[in-house]
Amino acid sequence: MSKPSQEKPMIDQNGVSVIQTQAHASGLQQVPQLVPVSPGRGGKAMPPSKAKKCTPEKDSEEYRQRRERNNLAVKKSRMKSKQKAQDTQQRVNELKEENERLEAKIKLLSKELSVLKDLFLEHAHNLADNVHPQNTDTTTMGQNTNAQ
């Protein structure tokens, strides 16, 4: 079978231990493994993007500017959210009004259809009553022609 991969632990500049195997040396994809540098600490290792950054002093100008920018961003986000909710509510109200109009129109058209059906049936019944059945008896027809 294949020989076991030999591991070569290395620590990068962020304090993350990267273990390279023989497969890595042959050009395959390198997969970093997060291992705490000092196992005695007991904490979990974090990728560099999640590592805690040094925060400026609360009295510093940089901190004050960051807080101000953050407060403006939060205010803008809340206003945008409120506006979106208002727009949605307005759209709901418009659709409710349109729905009521359409329901009223359906009711009116249904009544009109019922009236027109009744008129049609009445007219068809009157036509049936006014049509005289034709006499198909040849003897009666012959008598009528002889009498003239």
From TrEMBL:
MF annotations from Gene Ontology: DNA-binding transcription factor activity, RNA polymerase II-specific; RNA polymerase II cis-regulatory region sequence-specific DNA binding
Subcellular location: Nucleus
Keywords: Activator, DNA-binding, Isopeptide bond, Nucleus, Transcription, Transcription regulation, Ubl conjugation
Annotated Gene3D superfamilies: 1.20.5.170
Region listing for Disordered, in residue ranges: 1-97, 128-148
The organism's place on the tree of life at top rank: Eukaryota
Sequence ranges of Polar residues compositional bias: 14-32, 132-148
Residue stretches of biased makeup (Basic and acidic residues): 1-10, 54-70
Statement: the UniProt record of this protein carries the keyword Transcription: yes
Gene Ontology CC: nucleus
Name this polypeptide is given: CCAAT/enhancer-binding protein gamma
Gene designation per UniProt: LOC114658051
